[in-house]
Every structure is written in C-alpha cells, then in structure tokens.
C-alpha cells in the first residue's frame, strides 16, 4: 500500500512533523488571524452587471510604465504616475513622457499633486514624501515613536493639511497579505500639518486603510478599507464634525484608491483580493495560519484576478456607473481611476497570474467523504495496545504479513527485505528485493511468496529466486501494484492503486480523487494479465471469500470495499461489500471463520476534510508537496475491523491515540492470534483473540 513512502523517507521525521506542525503553525505563525467578514453578495449596493467598458481604454506609456499604481494630474494637465522601479514619470500635454524623479523604492503607492506645485507621494518604505523640481523632502517618517511603514494614499486639503492612510501598522508592504490573512484592523488615517510639521491621528483601527479622498466641498473625507469591502466617511465640518459613518459597504470587490470626480462623485477602483472559490480560506483560522507559513501559497489565494472594475459612486454613496474588463483582456488589477477632462486615467499593478490551474499536476474531482457512520461501529477501544511485539527493531515498517502452511510468518519491510519468522521464534533475512516499494504479499500455494512491488509489478519469490510475473499491462508499466491474493485454481488477483500516479505521488491520487485504480488477474499457464475491474478509487487490499465465490477489493479513498462475484448467478457482477467506513480501508485478509479483517487508515486529518470540498485548494496543495503533510496522512491512531461475509462489522480493535501501535495497514488472523502490520512501527504486533 501506498503510505510507506513518507515513512520510508522520513519515518520519525514525518511523525515529528505531524506533531511539530500543530505547534509550529500556531506559535510561530506570523499572524494571529481573525475571520474576515466577507461582503454579503450585493445586499445593500445595487450593482449593475459587469460590462467590458474598460476594454475601450487607450494605453498611455505602454511598455514604459511598470505597475503605475496611482495617477495624478496637476492644474497644467500634466499626468503623474509612480512606478515599481521607483520612477515618478510625467506625461506632458503634447503626449511625451518624462522620467521626472527617481526614488530608491519599490513601494511608491498613492500620489497627489500639491497645491503649490510638486507631488506628494506615499512611499510604503519611507513614509510621506514631497517632490518638487528642487528635490525630495520627507514630511513624515515616524508617528508616535514608530516608523510609518505602509503609507498608502494621500490627499491635500485647501488649508494645506495633508491626509494620508497607513494600510497597516503591523505589516509592511511586502507582507501585505499577512494583514489580509490576519484580518485585524491595523490601519490608520493620519494628518500632516505642514505649518507645525506635525503628524496626528484622525482614525485608528481601520481594515487596511487604502484610498483617501476629499469631498468637493471638503466637508468630509472618504477612506477605503480594502479588506472590509467598504469605505468610511469622516466629517471635517458641520454638525457631525469628527464623526465617522459608512459611506459605502458590501462592495462586490475590495476598494483600492478613490478619487474625487469633477461633478462631486467619486471613482473607486475595485480589486479582487480574494480569488473566487478560495473564500473559504478566510473562514478557517487554522488554514490561515498554514498559509501564512507558506508565503508562496499566498499568491494562489490572495491576489488580483485577471480582471478590472471601477465604480463611480455619488456623494450619497450610490453606485452610478460601473466599468469593467471582466476577463482582463485589456486591463486587470486596476488600482486607481482618476477623471480629468472627460477622461478616466487608470493605474494598475500587474496582476499576479493565476498559474495554478494550468500547471497543476492534478485535475481534481471532489471527494465523496463518507456519511458519518451509517455502519454501526462500536466505540473505539484500546485493544490493540495489548499486542506482543515481534521482531522489534528489526522490521522497518512491515506493511503486510502472510503466514504459510507451515506456520512461517513473512513480512516485507521498507529496506527491501522479505523477512520470515520461524516457529522456533528466530527471524531470517530471507530475500532482498532492492526495492523501497514492497507492498501486499501472499503465500503461494505451491510454496514461495507473491509480492506486489510498486516499482516493478507482480513478483514471485521462491527459494530459487525472483520471477517477475507482470510488469506491464495493456502496453503500460504497472506502476503501483498494491495487494495480491491467489485463488485455488492458480489465478492471481492483484490490485493497482493508481494507473496515473506512482507510489511517491500517492497523495496526488487522493487529491485528484478520480478512479485510476484497477483489479487485475494474472493467469500463470498463459502468462497473461487481464483486467477484472477498472475505475477503482485507490484499489488497495484484495481478498477471496472462504468459498472463493467472490473477491473483496478495498477502495481506500472511497472509504469502501467492493464485492466482485466469481461464481454463481451474479458472476462478473460488482456490488458494495461495505461502505461509509470510518476511515480508509487498507489491506483485507480472510479469517478462518469466513469473515474478513480490514485495517483502517486515517488518511485525512480530522478537521481538514474541507480540503476535499474545494478543487482550487486541491490544486494549491498539489503544487506544494510540503503542504500535503498538513492535509493528508495517517494520524497517530490504529484501527482494525472484523467484517462478516455479509458486510456487517463484528468487532473493532483500536489504539485510538497510537500509544502502542499506529498506522496499522494489515491484520491477519492465524491460530487465534491477529498479526498486525504497520508502516509506523518497527515490529509486527501479535494480538491474542481468545
Ligand atoms: C513636450 O513638452 C515638454 C514640456 O513642455 C517638452 O520638454 C518636450 O520636448 C515636448 N516633446 C515634444 C515631442 O514636443
Ligand atoms: C471575455 O468575456 C466576454 C464576456 O464577458 C467574452 O465574450 C469574451 O470571449 C471573453 N474574452 C476572453 C479573451 O476570454
Ligand atoms: C529456527 O529454525 C530455523 C528453520 O528451521 C533454523 O534455520 C534456525 O537455526 C532455528 N533457530 C534456532 C535458534 O533454533
Ligand atoms: C488516549 O486516549 C484515551 C481516550 O481514548 C485517553 O483517556 C488517554 O488519556 C489517552 N492517552 C494519551 C497518552 O493521550
């Protein structure tokens, strides 16, 4: 079976990781997240349907401006923009561009023209700056003893006061996504008074304070809270002076820069900070912490989709117009919109392209997780803690066990050895197969052993040597042979967990959740392999019934086992043997009384099942194998069940917190004892049944 790979590589390391993960994520996480309040789907604002008006833009300075985030126009009609390379460039009325000033910063954000000439610029590294022909002045670099790290947008009032936002007092520009993940209000609106050269606070506790604009009469300010999908109105004059109210909320995307239009309305650029289909991330604190530990992941979750939208909002907060480029054909990630001379000037940051779908190794389906215990399962017990440990220290991850007619017990371990235990209690290193992928084994009727090698196919071992029985089927390599059983007529039935993924990538099969498994039959006289069942969900353990009238094959990722009739009226038909198991069935073995022992493995961590309900997240995880261990993997527990030939669970043994055994992958009954293989142990467990 498949799970050995992790343990092979990293046994204890992996286990350590499992434990460490839980701790590390919470204590070393760069964020302490709150849940984000996602906007209600257009409840309070009436939004017209998307259009493609933004595709009509003329491109100014194309190829020359690298991410012009904001634009400003001075009284002479000169257009300014600050680009990612630290340049402030201006476009003269005759259409020619000039490289005006250069700042050693990659974080130039909001800009506004100064009444007396020059430009006021938010530098998210240095604070609030003023540029004139003569040079640059730092107006405000500190506030309240702390550096201003993330100045975002700025506006100048006619009395000379300069209002500017600080997106976050906790995170810097480079870590903006932490602020989004943390979803706490670290933003501020500050006021710089040039006559006093003093900075004071206007509003604190804002959710990513972004665009700021003054109303036409300068009786109020509007400040946009990007991650709250709303903008606030702060009164500067009149009866409600000093008070704050909501200007517009429940926006269809996050507001970025805001600019006053000549008619007194406002233009707000809307950015898609959260990818569609990944909103669920913001409903789980654990998941947020996981993502915060993998900054690369953030691109797949927080970011601008390839689209653009700007809205025009009246002074009363009603949306008047909406302009879109819904699939970013011409513009995407528009961060500001400025109206001047009957034209709208749009700034945009180059979108982080959503690559994940195209480069993902998987094409996932959603997994049907089992309905909670529709099979009567007795409560967990700790019977498996009573085992005697056989071959302790010698056996590394003995995944499967088999016993021959002489009572000799065989097991295949991660180091490629087939070892056997003689009746006198001594272990023998019998054969080494030079493989790390030995999975299911079964004793051969005429002596010897059949072995599923997930690298080489179906093998037969005798005292004389090794024979490869089947390495190819239908012109393709058999990559992931998993378990095997021999019938009394000599036919050998074996499962192939996945025809698409190899053992090393077993988790991709689980993520993809498509049926790539098979049950094959090898016929020794003709040396031919044929197909019995196709389209199985991670085909794992396979067993024959006592009368050999049916086969049972377990589908690990579907939490069920199927019955395939070999004889009788229903010969050739398949039905469900047992489904809705509490965990993924691994190996299955016939018991002497005609019942079956099935080992159950916990392949999905509790509480992380949500992963399997999102295709987007599956793509994300498939791109980051390191992440897989946070989502898929055996928990520190063990469970085996005894199921009657009719599919009813008769007994259940467990070690619920893995005190003695965990990750038990097979259970074989022999002479009133249960022999237990596991990928987590260095022994075979022996449990008395009487
Ligand atoms: C455009 O105007 C600017 C500023 O007046 C001037 O420096 C520049 O040479 C002009 N360019 C052209 C192509 O006329
Ligand atoms: C963009 O979307 C429009 C519908 O809004 C569609 O007709 C058009 O084909 C799309 N273009 C591209 C390049 O996807
Ligand atoms: C146990 O039996 C095996 C096989 O018969 C034999 O090779 C081995 O020497 C025996 N070991 C002991 C300690 O008796
Ligand atoms: C194991 O789980 C049981 C409950 O099933 C609990 O009482 C016990 O304290 C746990 N032991 C450890 C070591 O966590």
UniProtKB/TrEMBL annotation:
Protein family according to the UniProt entry: Belongs to the strictosidine synthase family.
Localization terms from the record: Vacuole
Major location category of this protein: other
InterPro entries recorded: 6-blade_b-propeller_TolB-like, Strictosidine_synth_cons-reg
Residue stretches making up the Strictosidine synthase conserved region domain: 156-239, 485-569
GO molecular function terms attached to this record: hydrolase activity
Native organism taxonomy: Eukaryota, Viridiplantae, Streptophyta, Embryophyta, Tracheophyta
Source species: Corchorus capsularis (Jute)
Residue stretches spanning the membrane: 12-31
Name this protein carries in UniProt: Six-bladed beta-propeller, TolB-like protein
GO CC annotations on file: endomembrane system; vacuole
